[in-house]
Each structure stands twice: as C-alpha cells, then as structure tokens.
Amino acid sequence: MDRFSWTNGLLEINETLVIQQRGVRLYDGDDKAKMDVGVALLSTHRLIWRDNKNHECCIAMPLSQILFFEEQAGGIGKSAKIVIHLHPTPPNKEPGPYQQSKYSYIKLSFKEHGQIEFYRRLTEEMTKKRWENMPVSQPIPTGTGLQAGRTRAVGIVGIERKIEEKRKETDKNISEAFEDLSKLMVKAKEMVELSKSIANKIKDKQGDITEDETIRFKSYLLSMGIADPVTRETHGSGTHYHMQLAKQLGDMLQAPLELLSPEDLVNACKMFESLKLPLRLRVFDSGVMVVQLQSHSEEEMIASALDNVSDKGSLTAEEFAKLLGLSVLLSKERLLLAEKMGHLCRDDSVEGLRFYPNLF
Amino acid sequence: MSFEWPWQYNFPPFFTLQPNADTRQKQLEAWCSLALSYCRHHKLYTLDVMEAQESPMFNNKKIERKLSMETIQIVFEELRKKGNLEWLDKNKLRCLVMWRRPEEWGKLIYQWVSKNGMVNSVFTLYELSNGDDTQEEEFHGLEEWMLLRSLQALQTDGRAEIISMDDGKDRFIKAL
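Above: the input entities. Below: the structure tokens describing the complete assembly.
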C-alpha cells in the first residue's frame, strides 16, 4: 500500500477513465487496509481508489507500478479479489496513505462484484500500455495534506494551460514571420548606407566612387525598376546633369519617361529657354507648373478661351477640357487666367464653377 | 407699374462675388443701384437683412441664384459709404435705406415749397408728408424720420427752420 499517492482524483489531459467499480476494499498485502470501502477506478494511466464517504480521501498509483496481477476467486463470506503485485516504490513517489509496507502486493476486494469486468479491463490496459503513448505532466511535489501536489489539466487550470501553450505557439509564428522582414530591413539598410556614401562622395568631391559601388548601386536601381538611368555618377552632378536631362526631355516628350524625381524634372524644365528648346515651363498663380510648347503665347490662349466660352454661352473647367482635349487642371488654369485678364467672369453655385464672358 | 429688373439680374455670375477687382467693382455698383431702385419702387425705407436675403431683391428664383449673406453685407457697406444706408443696430441686422439722400429730399421739398409760394409759411411735418397738397409729390408718404433728416439737411443749409413746441413733441417748419 505504500505505492499509492494522494491525489485529487481529477484526470489528466490525455488520461481517460476505463472502468470504475464501487464496493471495493483495499488490502495491504493480506491485511485489510485502514480505509473503508470505496470506489476503484481504472484509467489509461492509473489505478485510483476513492473513499465512499470521504471523497477527499483519494489515492492512486501509476499502472506502470504494476508488475503483474491475478484473480482470486471468492467463496462463502469472501469476496472475489484481484491481487496486484507491484514494482518497488520509485524514489520520487508522492506521499500517500502508507509511508511503508512490508508487502509488495495489494488486493482489491470486490464486495459488490464487478471483478470480472475490472480484471478484463485491467488486462487490456496493461497490455496496451496506453500511458506510454500519452504522457501526462510530471507531478509537482507538495508538502503535506490530503490533496496531491499534481496539477490537473482539466478545469480552469487546464484551460489556462491551453491558453499559455497557444500563446507560445503564436509567438513563435510571429517571430518566424518577422524573420523575413528583418532580412529585408538589413538589405534596405545596406542600400541606404551605400546611397549615403555615394551622396557624400559627390558632395565632398572626395575620392572616386569605386566601380564596385557603382555596380552595386545600379543593380539596386535596376531591382527597383529604373532601367538605364541618367545617374549623377555617369553624367556628373548639378547643372550638367539637368542639361542632359532637359535635352532628353525635349526629344522625347511624347514617349513615356523613365523614372525620375520630380525635383530633377522641374530643374531640367527650367533650362528649356536657355537651351533654346521649343518648350517652356510655366508657373500659374496657384503654383501649378506646366510644360507647354513655346508657340503658345498668353494672348492666344486667352483669346481662344474667350471664343470657346462665348460660343457655348458658358463653360465649366471639365467641359472646356473635353472641348480642347486638355487635362482638367490645365483647362482650369486657362480659364482662371482669362478671368484674371477680365475677359471672363465666374458663376459659383451648388451646380459648380462655371465661366461666362465678362459682360459687366 | 412693375419693377424693371436690370439685365444683370438674370446673369448668373451677378450673384457670385467676382474675384477680379475691376469686375467686382462694376458688379457692386450694379447691386447698389438695383437695391436702391428696388427700395424706391416699393417705398421701402428700412430693411431687415435676413428678410432681404430671401426677397426677390437678392434672390432670383427663376435662375436659382441668390446673393450670399457675405456679399449682401459687402453691398450694404458700399451703400453705407455712399450715404444711402444707415445701420439701426450694432449687429447689422436692420438698416435704414435712403434711396434718396436727405439732402436730395430736402431739395425736392424746398422746390415744392417755393413753387407754391409758401416760403416763410409754417407747416407741420404731417402736412408735408401726408397733406392733400403734396399727394402728387414724391415725398408724399415719406417716413417721418426721413422727412426730419431731410429738413435737418435744409436747416443746415440755412433754408429752413425747425421749430419745436411742447418740449419737442410737435414740430413746425418754416421754409426760409
């Protein structure tokens, strides 16, 4: 009987109840155990016994403790029994009802029958040894008391444990996912460093940008979709670069441009006049900047705008744009210019902004 | 005779405050003129600004346009500067409209007085504005406050004298 440990009787996560039988008295070897009659429970992992009257009195032993077992037939005045021979006590056994025993076997006496089924099931479990495939957590040692120190996985504690496991799993997934991002950021950092280094070199005009750096930089640009850029590196910095760009723009205004920073574009456009290109950068009052052909003089634009508006009675920017095949932004700027010159006036209502010839 | 609207009244841009300075000036002049002639036609001497916004004067239902409150205030300010309008309250919700300035009224009254040989005669305010003799005159039906101002203008000019009796309750005028 010293192989038993106190327990709270709750099953572990992977532990399943196989059979239970009431009216069972325990024997320590051949002696009646100090307990009363109770319920014997067999699970996939343990042999459990619980006092009928005092449910807090509950003990159990792992099935692995069982060496072998046999039936003992009952007789007159004697109940049928199962004799269970046990392995020696393991050193880390939890405290139980018996500190020691001279016997290495116990008996289950079935006062209300049921031993045949119990024996059969016990045989099954001992054969299958299911506890080996479905490990349960290690018992947590506690000092004293009727309650065993084991944490149970059912009930609130079980739920808590499940939550904790899930959280750990999620954490792991997130960390893995961010590994890729960290790699990307490392790459980006490299590129930023390189860009800075090149920019500094250009600024300080110190040393040459090595061929290696150039190649690396171009490869980065390529990977971003900038095919063959007019880079500052190949065409020098500042005005010369803008001049080249301006010429390029002048040639291929109709064709789709390569990727270009807006600032560079504007600076290049400012050079049109000095380079005698037939294009002009025009800045409107609103700040809007447009590139237009030189042939477009202001008076012409205004006169034509007035004609169009008079012709139709009145026009909105959208209607004007459609009429001339211009962008709405550009057509609005033209109308505003004509208004500024006093040729048009405006009608601003819930219907929108409409321009009329200035009849005032 | 129904009121004749100026051509601008049916021109939608008339109801939008024009950003172009020159255009705006012309627009405001037209509005001042319209407001005054409308008030003259309907013999309106005072205006409630809220009511005015909804009246046909500033609201042309036919073209679905009306002047914004902001623009109305600008028009009124122009009228005030010209001497045709006076605010009755601090909040600028009610005003006096002098579609004819006091001096102009005074002149008309004096002309009638002298034409009828009534210089140096004395008569009451009521006689002037509501008397049978003045029925054909433009100043017939003129509101008292306006009449008084007109006569005060004449007085300043030295062409009339306002005589108050009974501690200012009755007033008599003597054209000089």
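Note for the figure: Residues 139-152, 225-237 of chain A have pLDDT under 50 and may be disordered.
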